[in-house]
Amino acid sequence: MRILHVHPINQVAQQYMDGLARLGHTGTLYEPSLAGGGAALPLKLAMMPGRIFHMSQIVGDLNSAHYDLAHIHWASYGVLGLASRIPYIVHCHGSDVRERLKTPAARILLTPILRRAAAVLCITPDLLPVVQGVISDARFFPAPVDASVFTPPPDEMPPRPWTVLLFARLEPGKGVEVAAQGVAHFAERHPEVRVCLLDYGVLSAEYRQRYGGRFDFLPRVPPDEVPNLLRRVDGVVGQFAVGALGLSELQAMSCARPVIASFRYPEAYAAPPPLYQATTAEEVDAQLEFIFQHPQEAKDVGEQARAWIRVFHDAEALAKRLEGIYTQTLGQAA
User: Fold this and answer.
1) Is 11 left (phi over 0), alpha (psi -120 to 50) or beta?
2) Which residues contact 192 (CB under 8 A, 6 or more apart)?
3) I need a surface site. Which of 15, 45, 218, 219 has the fewest CB within 10 A?
4) What is the pLDDT of residue 334?
5) CA atoms within 13 A on the CB side of 104
6) Quick one: pLDDT at residue 155?
7) pLDDT at position 174, please?
8) What pLDDT does 45 receive?
9) Distance between CA atoms of residues 7 and 2, nearest Å
10) Contact predicate 147/314, CB 8 Å
11) How many helices (H) and strands (E) does the chain have?
12) So what's the pLDDT on residue 56?
């Protein structure tokens, strides 16, 4: 099969492509222009014609002479599917649908995109209720994690302080208020512990002012440095807002790091993820204390988490599942 993958968000499309290539399929990755995507609305609207022109350049290739199918990441880019002459799949990733589908104007725009898609996939299970309000047969299809890259630390590591990483963007929708408060309470009792946050997100300045005297704010690291970052910490605190595991938590689990997070969708997997459950700042504090006081058990849970990742988020297995979805889609279109 010849597949056009649209939008390289979090390297997900590339990993699917790599796995599918090993199964004998060819793939092309198209990156739409993101100019003005994070700007204020007036500037974003001013730059929209240029973005539309950029996307129009690929529309002429969306036919059976070039590709058999398009796999589109990020729901709004599904407009390319509406303009195509081949079947397309829409893969929803989060903010592309989570809040937008609750807004009447955005819902009007996204509804035909989702309903005309050959399949609609959601990368985390919390998105299903939102998307299924538009198209009932949307399904959960998780992100791949390369366990050959995200590996545990070696047995011998240079001496360093016991380290906690709050591994999430400093954004209101990530539940970082809960995480930061819990970590701060724990750190008050353990001045010898190092606490790291990512200096990334709209709350960064506020958090630097509030916690800068105690926490270390790390600059954003390139994707290929993330495994090394995770190997240098002893506990990872993740997201608490949506109740699903994002790529940050999954990568930490693949590195056999004990993860504290809120997970509220046990039906999404045949076996629950091995992690330390928390929903409040007090529970985050208590779970950090437990990990700190019981290092061997924390190590065991981390190893179980890595084994779980290899079962449910293995890139090769997911590529094989995608191949089945693609084959079914093309069979229905024939």
Assistant:
1) left
2) 161, 162
3) 219
4) 62
5) 0
6) 81
7) 74
8) 42
9) 16
10) yes
11) 12, 12
12) 62
The separation between the first and the last C-alpha atoms of the chain, rounded to the nearest angstrom, is: 14
Taking a C-beta distance cutoff of 8 angstroms, is the pair 164, 307 a contact?
no
Distance of alpha carbon 2 from alpha carbon 86, whole angstroms: 11
Q: What is the largest CA-CA distance in the chain?
A: 65
34: tokens are: 């993101």
Determine the distance from the C-alpha atom of residue 58 to the mean position of all C-alpha atoms in its chain, rounded to a whole number. 26
Give CA angle at 246 (245, 251), nearest 5°.
100
**CB of 80 within 8 A of CB of 55?**
yes
CA distances from 65 to 55, 78, 243, 327 (A): 19, 20, 43, 18
Cβ count within 10 A of residue 52: 12
Q: How far is CA 13 from CA 6, 18, 140, 289, in A?
A: 8, 9, 16, 38
Closest CA to 5 of 32, 33, 38: 32
Query: Measured between alpha carbons, how far is 130 from 124 in angstroms, rounded to an integer?
Result: 11
* Residues 186 and 164 sit within 8 Å (Cβ to Cβ): yes
Q: Which amino acid is at 138?
A: A
Contact 333, 117 (CB under 8 A): no
Gap between the Cα atoms of 141 and 170, Å rounded: 26
Amino acid at 187: A
Q: Which residue has the tokens 């699917």?
A: 16
* Number of Cβ atoms within 10 Å of the Cβ of 210: 13
Q: Which class for 214: exposed (0-12), middle (13-18), buried (19 or more C-beta within 10 A)?
A: middle
Sorted by where each starts, the structural domains of the chain and their CATH numbers stand as: 2-144+314-333 (3.40.50.2000), 163-312 (3.40.50.2000)
Series of mean pLDDT values for 10-residue runs along the chain (334 residues): 95 95 96 58 43 62 94 94 95 94 93 97 97 97 96 86 95 87 97 95 93 92 94 96 94 98 96 97 98 98 98 95 96 76
Rounded distance between C-alpha atoms, residue 99 and residue 173, angstroms: 11
Site of tokens 């990755």:
29
